[in-house]
Amino acid sequence: MTRTLIVPGVDGSPAAHWQSWWLGVEPSSRLVDQANWSKPQPDDWETEIAGAILHYPDSILVGHSLGAITIARVLTRWPHLKVRAAMLVAPAEPRREGRLAAFAPIPERPLRVPTLVVASRNDPWMTFTRASHLAGAWGAALYDMGFAGHVNVESGFGPWPRGLELRDELLQTATFAPPAIRLPRGRSIGRSVR
Asked: Which of 14, 26, 160, 179 has most Cβ atoms within 10 angstroms of its Cβ?
């Protein structure tokens, strides 16, 4: 069974957040915990993610906000880690808030695993244009959420069944494609319907 490693952003994911919901309904999901959710440190966060990958090799990583950016940092820093795929939801621009600044610059190289960037057109943490650019740089597919804010509780995302479907579609691509084949750079795989 492929594990889903859930990687929240700064301040973690409250109980009503879709990531917390996934942890409750998906037996294969595991939270990548951090020692300090409110004062993120890149080395600490990256080490925790790398440790979780080593413990659960061949998992899919699902990150939200700063968690998505930290996954990109881990995959470029340690490309040898055995990861099945990565789903990066509503990535956050580290330069938007002082607590996140140490996570800049965001790496802009291929991530070398099948990756899906899920981005919103009115996300206050990163413009859709920037998310689209990063998807291209990472060699990732791009899923257009429309006007979905930061894809969090405040923008109406508690349970998010479509997110699970996107994860499963990504896993099918990662499972059945030969290792040398990756998702096309910046390819769009559809538009969200809540």
From this structure: 160
